[in-house]
Automatic annotation (TrEMBL):
GO terms for molecular function: tRNA (guanine(26)-N2)-dimethyltransferase activity; tRNA binding. InterPro entries: SAM-dependent_MTases_sf, Trm1, tRNA_met_Trm1_C. This is tRNA (guanine(26)-N(2))-dimethyltransferase. It comes from Rhizophora mucronata. Residues 258-291 are annotated as: Disordered.
């Protein structure tokens, strides 16, 4: 389950389902300076009486320059911005796995992934990294509990993500996220930076929102409160797909996999060399004269 998945796809061909597809897609604008991102839906609807009209989405969703740091945006997509998880199915499959856990050799990993996914915000497609936010401001990082509490106390929702242990999903807009970080830096000052740096531009503005870092009751998920494992370590060092058979070993593989893994792969290949071929090569390397 670490590298390969089997996907079952259900295809809807009705006209109404096709018309709803653009409503579930969005373009992404991401700042090149502070990594703030904004979504622009591909489609929209207008309801009048009992009829619904499907129209292209309004845009652009942002100005030419980022409102937080003044840098330009990169544009990507469209991405799927609608929910990707069925909460009812997740709950049922997690219960089934727990009831029959002896049948699953990888039960710990399966339950950890399903538990993490079941606690995600379903209507937030992307996440922010707390460490990346702090790297932009060159400040010390608050704990996830403190940051979660500030978001919750501001009236928004927040959760983790199964993609990254340090990732956080929230329906709070980016200006609220940066206001929380501005308030954090006021209590934990940073060294002066060049005035044109994104972090300097962000910190030069006073926060509109005064963050409350008092610990909120919901700052820990149910799994975290019960100390349920959500991200398990890899079974071994350099865990991942091995080299393809017959592929030439280069310095890149040594840097990625480590010398031990590469040497083990080479030794394994040498041990599988056919006996006849090995004898033939030995005869070629050490010829004997016939008198």
């Amino acid at each position: 389950m670490d590298f390969y998945v089997r996907v079952f796809v259900r295809i809807y061909t009705s006209a109404s389902a096709m018309k709803n597809t653009p409503l579930k897609l969005s373009y992404v604008y991401q700042c090149t300076g502070c990594d703030s991102f904004h979504l622009q839906p591909v489609g929209r609807t207008i309801s009048k009486n009992n009829s619904v009209r499907y129209l292209p989405g309004f845009g652009p969703a942002v100005a030419q320059e980022c409102s937080d740091c003044g840098k330009k945006f990169n544009m990507g997509g469209p991405i799927w911005s609608a929910p990707i998880h069925d909460q009812e199915w997740l709950t049922s499959i997690l219960e089934d796995v727990k009831q029959d856990k002896d049948s699953y050799p990888a039960y710990n990993r399966i339950s950890a992934v399903l538990t993490t996914i079941s606690e995600e915000l379903i209507d937030v497609p992307l996440f922010v990294s707390l460490h990346n936010l702090c790297a932009t401001l060159k400040c010390t990082s608050p704990s996830a509990v403190i940051f979660r509490s500030a978001v919750l106390n501001a009236g928004y929702h927040i959760s983790g993500t199964h993609v990254n242990p340090l990732g956080l999903k929230s329906d709070a807009p980016m200006d609220v996220i940066w206001d929380i970080m501005r308030c954090w830096v006021k209590n934990h000052p940073v060294k002066s930076q060049a005035p044109d740096q994104p972090g300097s531009v962000i910190l030069a503005r006073e926060p509109v929102l005064q963050a409350n870092f008092a610990r909120a009751v919901a700052s820990l998920s149910k799994a975290q409160a019960k100390k349920v494992a959500r991200f398990l370590p890899n079974p071994e060092r350099h865990w991942g797909p091995k080299l393809r058979a017959g592929r030439q070993i280069t310095s890149k593989h040594v840097s990625l996999l480590g010398p031990d893994a590469v040497n083990g792969h080479l030794n394994h290949e040498n041990s599988e060399e056919p006996e006849a071929k090995r004898h033939k090569r030995d005869d070629t390397e050490n010829p004997t004269s016939i008198s």
